[in-house]
Amino acid sequence: MKPTQLDDGNWRLNIPASFSESGTRQRLFFKTKKLAELEAERLKSMANLWGSTSRKIKASTAEDAAKATDILKGHDVSLAYLATRYVEDMAKLSRSKTFAEAWTLFEDTREQKSDEHKRTLARIGRKLTASIGKKMICDITHEQLEKALNKDFGSPHTFNLALRSASPAFNMAVTKGWAKENVCKRIEKIDTGRKKAVASLTLNQCRKVISACKDYRGDKSLHENLQVNCDAALPAIAIMLFAGVRPVETTRLDWENVDLDEGTILISNQKAKTDRSRFFDMPDTLKAWLELTPRHERIGSVCPPNWKRIIQAVRKKSGIGESGNDQLRKTFATMHLAHFKDVNLTRSIMGHESGDVIFTNYRGIVKPKTAAEFWGILPTENEVIKESEASA
Residue 227: is its pLDDT beyond 60? Predict the structure, then answer.
């Protein structure tokens, strides 16, 4: 490669394809012979240093490859492999969604959940979308998400709830290829301090709620909307109180799932909160109360029509409060664990995945003597009505 002077005084350098960075023959023009010679020497040096392949790439690219090779010393991986993985990752992330789009699709997957669960997701989604909704979910860092959670959810409880609710959405994003990782896993929950003891109903409250399953039509002590017949509420109340079945699961339960001859109850995965079926032997106390319902009436839903008004009336007349139906399940857990002393048995009936929750939250709340009296609350004892009326 020797420079040639042209009529106009400039110099031309003819570069063969084997030396050209483009891989094809080139003609380069320079103002002086010296500049042309320097470029020729550079191209020859590149060829000697990097081999024939490097003649077809830019010098800066070759230098960058050398740096990458130094970084990868000790790692058995090629630049070509890394480049392929990078292109594949970028192709996946290019199909990513904004947080707002991803959250909407996530909510669609929760359609079978309870109304309360869906309302919670909608409320959390609105707040997070206002903060990070326009960001691509693949670009959201755990620092950005934590900042949004701190901004929109001030208390430790609401912060932890929002974090717990957002985690499945990011899991879905990873599964769909919209994000590389679930950044929620990098965020620590806030310590809420020592937990309060579970509010278990007293024995007298248990008797009152059972005795409250009566006909209140025309009862002026109740709001007009709650003057309903609550006779048929007893089976559902008994199932929550003496088997710890969740309120929402009870509303989905049919009599065909309750086998009084075998003494068993089936909570199918379609009706369970956790999407997992469970099958358990009902305690004798529960069986005794359910047998009060004549066989010919054991059809359809365990909960009677107009259930929301009926359960409100029962709560009102028994005095157990607005969240009382959830207390029925908690009362079961404390009484069952104290009496039978079998964490795994209590866990399997309640539908918890592990016994840790049972042991931590329900152990030692009531004395064994109180628990024994609880399981002795039977329909054959007139004390149920007598004590509740006496304390009314």
Answer: yes
Domain 99-186 is found in CATH 1.10.150: yes
| d(C-alpha 19, C-alpha 27), whole Å | 12
Residue written as tokens 């509420």? 233
Q: Is the dihedral of CA 110, 116, 117, 123 positive or negative?
A: positive
The enclosing H or E element of 166 equals helix 156-176
Contact 388, 208 (CB under 8 A): yes
For the chain, the structural domain boundaries read 4-75, 99-186, 203-390
- In the block, tokens 């058995």 appear at 76
The Cα–Cα gap between 241 and 247 comes to 10
d(CA 379, CA 385): 9
Higher pLDDT, 124 or 78: 124
pLDDT band at 2 (very low <50, low <70, confident <90, very high): confident
- What DSSP string describes 93-130? HTT--BHHHHHHHHHHTTTTS-HHHHHHHHHHHHHHHH
Instruction: Find the Cα–Cα–Cα–Cα dihedral 323, 325, 329, 335, rounded to 10°.
Output: 90
Amino acid at 391: S
Where does the pLDDT of residue 391 fall: very low under 50, low under 70, confident under 90, or very high at 90 and above?
very low
Q: Are 260 and 243 in contact (CB under 8 A)?
A: no
Residue 383: pLDDT over 90 = no
Burial level of 195, CB count in 10 A (0-12/13-18/19+)?
A: exposed
Name the pairing type of β-strands 258-259 and 264-267: antiparallel
Radius of gyration over alpha carbons of the chain, in Å? 36
Query: What six digits make up the tokens of 321?
Result: 């409060």
As its CATH architecture, domain 203-390 has: Orthogonal Bundle (1.10)
Q: In what order do the strands lie in the sheet with 258-259?
A: 258-259, 264-267, 278-281
Residues 6 or more apart whose CB falls under 8 angstroms from that of 40 comprise 1, 2, 3, 13
Q: What are phi and psi of 119, to 5 degrees?
A: -65, -40
Contacts of 64 (CB under 8 A, 6+ apart): none
